[in-house]
TrEMBL record:
SUPFAM superfamilies: Periplasmic binding protein-like II. Keywords: Signal, Transport. CDD domains: PBP2_NikA_DppA_OppA_like_13. The keyword Transcription does not apply. Pfam families: SBP_bac_5. InterPro entries: Peptide/Ni-bd, SBP_5, SBP_5_dom. Its main location: periplasm. It comes from the Bacteria. Residues 1-19 form the signal peptide. It comes from Sneathiella marina. This is ABC transporter substrate-binding protein. Belongs to the bacterial solute-binding protein 5 family. It is found in: Periplasm. The keyword Ligase does not apply.
Length: 532
């Protein structure tokens, strides 16, 4: 027997979303207008296919090009997109989806259940956390061209959340099913074909990406905008200047510093908001390669954590606009708990811990040294945190050499090949921990893939808890298990957690309906319009 058409996967009501909805109920509603070009920016991308690459650089444009089965609204509720309806069996082991009739890819070919089956298999195999999301999908049935059925070997509480365009874009089988390796497929960057609200008109990776309205989009009279222009701007200060000059209309994941936010707010023409990132949960951490000395010693990791005052970073370096992280879950997650072992900054104690660990200070005061990599992305956060860490550890006799990656690829190669000692890092929780958290702790996810378990942590007890949480359908029981997971991660000091990201969107007041779901800029922009 199957349940109702639309399933509410989690009983989550985001307070900010409620506030937004209440505000919308009392404010006069402007009539959306069609036409116009929205100017935005990107820091660059290696691929436009979010089915094989995680992260915002690919995800923001990718979600405009590719559609998914569902969208997730402000209340974390799945709503129809390419799937016009669905039903779930009583045992939560079978999901049946009906596709929108007449939906087409950008090249005019029809979207069928075979494309959905192909896409799920592709994402499961190639996406950095495809296995975490869809590992329990045992088979995909395609009884007719507009019906697709997922048969599960065990419940997946967050399954619908994983069917957004960002996480499972529907890929054209007739393009990507030609036998070539999908990760390196030339059509990820050239003549890209999706079924989202916008089509690729021009792709010059070093300069700009131009998307134009998909006139055959499966939602009538959408999108409102005629064109999106993504200018490649890597420097955050340049982006700020362009916003001030009115050259840019909208930037999600703006990468601005908290001090920049105050400056932009004072212009009176721009809105700076941290809303719309509920499903993202962007956290930062100091990642240590746990395979080798000295970081394979927990006491050393405790010493380093004790030397770093994350409250100072949050309040002073980031102007009080960020929140100190305590574990692998973002404080905005429904599964978050602050009831974890905590460490108070204390340089004397940190030095003593290193003595006990067998790293006494030498004649020159030095105990050991290591290289700390700084990614090429999110420099506004990583650089000050790295420089502060270098300074603090120097006070206890640990010499830190900072190494800034010249580009994203160089950093990825070092970390994913495990050829590093330590790096500043950050990742998204996504709306369900199975999607964004498990990947960092699963023993079988120690892979040469960025943002997997690159640090090399493995504990069967942690694996058992992750496995239990992944299939638990009772929300309270799941919360309890994730609380234990957070406590163990903090106790083991798998990472040294830093303040959470100051993730902000900046947009001109002429932009109507800026993306406001829990996926924010990573959701489709078909409702966005420009006011006259």
């Amino acid at each position: 027997m199957f349940k109702s058409n639309f399933m509410r996967p989690l009983s989550i009501i985001a307070p900010l979303a409620i506030a937004a909805l209440l505000g919308a109920a009392t404010a006069p509603l402007a009539e959306p207008q069609s036409g116009g070009t929205l100017n935005t920016t990107t820091t660059g991308y290696r691929t436009l296919n979010p089915g094989v690459q995680s992260g915002a650089a690919t995800g923001v444009p990718g979600s405009q090009i590719f559609a998914g089965l569902v969208l997730i609204d402000e209340d974390y509720k799945a709503t129809p997109y390419l799937a016009e309806s669905w039903s779930v069996s009583d045992d939560n082991l079978s999901y049946s989806f009906k596709l929108v009739q007449g939906a087409k890819f950008h090249d005019g070919k029809p979207i069928t259940s075979a494309d959905v089956a192909f896409s799920l298999d592709t994402v499961k195999t190639n996406h950095p956390f495809g296995k975490a999301m869809f590992g329990n999908v045992a088979s995909v049935e395609t009884p007719d061209p507009s019906t697709v059925v997922f048969q599960l070997s065990a419940p997946i509480p967050g399954l619908l959340l994983s069917l957004e365009p960002l996480l499972m874009p529907i890929l054209p089988k007739h393009v990507y099913g030609d036998g070539q390796e999908v990760k390196k497929h030339p059509r990820n960057m050239e003549n890209v074909v999706g079924s989202g609200p916008f089509k690729v008109a021009e792709n010059v990776p070093a300069e700009r990406l131009v998307l134009v309205k998909n006139e055959e989009f499966f939602i009538k009279d959408r999108p409102y905008l005629d064109k999106l222009v993504f200018s490649v701007v890597k420097d955050s200060l340049t982006r700020v200047l362009m916003m001030e000059k009115g050259e840019i209309d909208y930037i999600g994941f703006s990468g601005i510093r908290p001090t920049d936010a105050e400056r932009l707010e004072k212009t009176g023409n721009l809105t700076v908001t941290t809303e719309g990132y509920g499903a993202i949960g962007y956290i930062h951490y100091l990642e240590l390669n746990l395979r080798d000395k000295p970081f394979n010693d927990r006491k050393v990791r405790e010493a380093l954590a004790t030397a770093i005052d994350t409250n100072f970073i949050a309040k002073i370096l980031f102007g009080g606009r960020t929140t100190v992280g305590t574990g692998p879950l973002h404080t905005g997650s429904v599964f978050y708990t602050s009831d974890v072992p905590s460490i108070t900054a204390d340089l004397d104690k940190a030095a003593k811990l290193l003595d006990e660990a067998g790293y006494p200070a030498g004649a020159n005061g030095e105990r050991f040294s290591f290289t700390l990599d700084i990614p090429s992305w999110a420099k506004q956060a990583h650089v000050p945190m790295a420089e502060y860490t270098q300074s603090q550890l120097g006070k206890i006799g640990v010499k830190v050499e900072l190494r800034q990656a010249p580009d994203f690829g160089t950093w990825v190669k070092r970390i994913s090949s495990f050829d590093y000692q330590a790096t500043m890092n950050g990742s998204f929780n996504y709306p369900d921990p199975v999607i964004g958290v498990h990947r960092h702790f699963d023993c079988d996810n120690i892979r040469n893939v960025i943002w997997s378990n690159t640090q090399g942590y493995c504990d069967p007890a942690m694996d058992a808890m992750l496995d239990a949480a992944a299939v638990e359908t009772d929300l309270d029981k799941r919360k309890a298990t994730y609380a234990e997971i957070q406590r163990k991660a903090a106790e083991d000091l798998v990472f040294i957690y830093m303040p959470q990201d100051f993730t902000a969107t900046v947009y001109s007041k002429k932009v109507g309906n800026p993306p406001a779901s829990v996926f924010g800029p990573l959701a489709p922009w078909h409702e966005v319009y420009l006011k006259n």
